[in-house]
Predict the 3D structure of the following.
Amino acid sequence: MKTIQILGSGCAKCQKLADAAEAAARDLGVEYRLEKITDIKRFAEFGVMMTPAMVVDGELKVSGKIPTDQALRQMLQ
């Protein structure tokens, strides 16, 4: 099971990234757990300077933008 963490304030872009990541995981048939992290102090733990950001299984995959659906699928495989 993959752990997908979305880091951000909860803004529209953060929600869009969360929705897109969930859709990509479902399309791939990947079992996942989604966690939304809004505590700015935790962002530093991952080295995130810009949000939205996505961490998969403890590894920062993207920060400061919303990747394409194809790029998300690659990150989640």
